[in-house]
Amino acid sequence: VTRVRFAPSPTGGLHPGNARVAIFNYLFARHYSGVNILRFEDTDEERSSKVYEKSILEDLKWLSIDFDEGPFYQSKNIKRYKEVIEELTSKGFLFKCYCTKEELKHEREEQAKKGLPPKYSGKCKHEETCKVGCEYVLRFDVEKFIKETGIKELSYLDEIKGQIKTDLSKIGDFVIVKESGIPTYNFAVVVDDIDLKITHVFRGEDHISNTFRQIMIFKALAKDYPKYGHLPMLLAKDRTKLSKRSGGVPIHEFRKQGFLSSAVFVHLAFIGGCIGCIEEKANLDKMIENFNYKKTAVAPTVYDIEKLTYLNTKKLCEISAIDLLKILKSDFDFKTIVYKDENLLKIIEVLKEGARTLVNIIDDFSVFEESGVNKDFLKDFKDEEKNLFIEFLNNYKNINSFSDLKETLSSKTNLKGKKFFMPLRIFITGRTCGPSLKDVFSLISKDVLNKRIEKIRQVLNV
Ligand code: GLU
User: Is the pLDDT of residue 275 over 70?
Assistant: First the structure.
């Protein structure tokens, strides 16, 4: 069975890059009828937080990414890690390193002066530098690995990037257990991937260099390693790292900004040549069916929030009013006491056309619900507009269709074009822009409209 995992570190929210990895794993698991597993990599005691964990869970749920097993927590698995550390120690792959942070920093500075890349010297492997009671970390002995396995150049077939190799002599002895006794990411991830019988690891390409360390640990434990695939990074338009401004915000921010979860899902699945799906209009079933991970783009993906907005507009147009109403209720706590059933759906139907986001819809809905009017719009009214208002006041209650209203009023005034429609818009909607007058006039509650008109009457003092 295919078994994949999404393994976020709860040191931040679910950003577009991680979400994309989650979507990829999800589609992969579903396409191959496999198992999708969630694991929190929370061994970084200082930076991990329950708050992030909760927000990642909520965002995954919002995106409708579900899991068959987990969440597992690395922080709850320390006992098991200790067993495996014993095993590696008894096989002679680990050694104690007493170097202080300052010593290591000095070492790196010396290397930099000589133009060498930073690499731990292996000092503590050769001499016992501590007398008694010193703090230490456990490091993996890369030299010993090379000697034991005869592998100098390590190479693996990346499911997305193709063959990748590295010269192991470039990799310094890396830390397996920190001073606190807590294992590092590179070690814990291997133990968990073994225990959870993971068949494929898909993650961001920033983990490629870790992959070599992880494969060494697998081999040292005489275990087969999973297949690895690394997804290209998401970059801002200017090819720098995604920042807050360029869209590098947690997924719940997209929700707050009024994007549909289906639009965010499809958008993340498609940017950068997509992850194997055929067309952007595909529904989830089609995406799963047609998922072909081999088609995933290799080059970094440029993230473009304009495209998301465009897609959202399209999806808002396509979605049924009933479904949209459900989303407005769940994502925006939308409530109305004025409208019910058919009427409400008709209004939603009108508002979703051309809306870019749910926020637009909520905002436009207030035209139907709140009887307010901005007094500033009325302060420049001259006699002409006031007359138009008086005519409006005398007629609107007896007229049902907007075109009849228009005809009646225009026959009684000389105002034309914008000069005619703008005041009319203010009477009916309380605003100078917004949904179509025809729609508002035919769907607005008479009660709300009457109240608005009464307010205008008082301001204009007619
Ligand atoms: N915890 C890692 C991250 O959030 C994921 C590593 C992995 O998938 O192996 O980037």
Answer: no
| Helix (H), strand (E), coil (C) string for 392-428 | HHHHHHHCCCHHHHHHHHHHCCCCCHHHHHHHHHHHH
Rg of the chain in Å (alpha carbons): 31
Residue 47 to residues 15, 184, 185: CA-CA distances in angstroms?
16, 13, 13
Read off the tokens for 152: 């100098």
Helix or strand or coil: residue 235? strand
What pLDDT, on a 0 to 100 scale, did the predictor assign at position 286? Answer: 85
**What is the pTM (predicted TM-score) of this model?**
0.91
**pLDDT tens for residues 282-297?**
788 888 888 888 888 7
For 18, 22, 27, 283, the CA distances from 269, given in Å and listed in that order, are 12, 10, 9, 12
Amino acid at 23: I
Residue 7 beta carbon below 6 angstroms from any ligand 1 atom: yes
pLDDT, tens digit (0-9, with 9 covering 90-100), for 238-254: 888 887 777 789 999 99
Task: Report the candidate in 144, 146, 140, 154 with the shortest Cα–Cα distance to residue 211.
Answer: 154
Considering only CA atoms, which residue is closest to atom 6 of ligand 1?
7
| Ligand 1 atom closest to 185 (CA) | 1
Instruction: Decide whether any atom of ligand 1 lies within 6 Å of the 193 Cβ.
Output: no
Does residue 280 have a pLDDT over 90?
A: no
Q: What's the Cα-to-Cα distance from 178 to each of 56, 121, 133, rounded to whole Å?
A: 26, 18, 16
CA distance 381 to 433: 17
CB of 39 within 6 A of ligand 1: the answer is no
Return d(Cα 406, Cα 314) in angstroms, integer: 32
